[in-house]
Amino acid sequence: MSRAPLVPLPYREYPPEEMLRRAIEFRAEVARRRTVREYSDRPVPRQLIAECLLAAGSAPSGANLQPWHFVAISDPEIKARIRKNAEAEERDFYSHRAPAEWLAALELIGTDEHKPFLESAPWLIAVFVQKHGLGSSGRRIPHYYATESVGIATGILVTALHHAGLATLTHTPSPMGFLNEILGRPANERPFLLLVTGYPASDPQVPDIGRKSLDEIVTFFERRNGS
Fold first, then answer.
1. What is the pLDDT of residues 105-127, one digit of tens each?
2. In a domain, 12, yes or no
3. How many structural domains does the chain have?
């Protein structure tokens, strides 16, 4: 395989004070993002979802193999099937499989096995990790850092949807193999998560919880003057 041709970097540099302003504004915008569990049934255009998915598809990935596939669902019958299967797994999780410590942690946000948002939200986006690719002849193509790459792409997708003005919720029933069956995805793809998105219901309420401070999440090793 020959090396890809080189093209100019589409880089845009800003004066330092504008860079800081942009960073502060972006931080303030993403800080407004909250997980939403109550959704309006107001329709969301397919093109809006598609643009956000294209943004997610721009994520970096190991060897640029882009080991992700997204399935966007607005069909009510398919959403109902997904909810039925997800709630079955969640009932088993909450009743038998979840450790006591996990259940205690979940009490803070008040979640349980009931997932009405899987039907009320206008769109569900199922995110899949391609464990390996398939060439035109059926040859397996190894994917490198596939889970990490899909995680980055999903983060961009959540941010893109928030930036566009939609609410989101990440949902991870375990196991999620039923998504392959319902959505007709091949065996080389593993469900990563379900992303719920749409307009929040009128007067939505979210838990009054905070986020860790900079000192709690960051360690700096700075260059010393003169070194």
1. 777 777 778 899 999 999 999 99
2. no
3. 1
- Size of the chain, expressed as the number of residues it contains: 227
User: Is 19 contained in some domain?
Assistant: no
- pLDDT tens-digit map of 9-39: 999 999 999 999 999 999 999 999 999 999 9
What tokens appear for 150 in the block? 């899909």
Domain CATH code at residue 68:
3.40.109.10
Question: Looking at residue 130, what DSSP letter applies?
Answer: E
> Above 80 in pLDDT, residue 172?
yes
Preceding omega of 10 cis (within 30 degrees of 0): no
3-state secondary structure of 153: helix
Backbone angles phi, psi at 148, to 5 degrees: -65, -40
Which of 119, 98, 55, 90 lies closest to 178 in space, CA to CA?
90
Q: Which domain holds residue 112?
A: 52-200
Torsion sign, CA atoms 149, 54, 34, 182: negative
The reply to whether 90 falls in a domain is: yes
Residue 210, in any domain of the structure: no
**68-86 tens-digit pLDDT:** 999 999 999 999 999 999 9
Helix, strand, coil percent content, the chain, rounded in steps of 5: 40, 15, 45
pTM of the model: 0.92
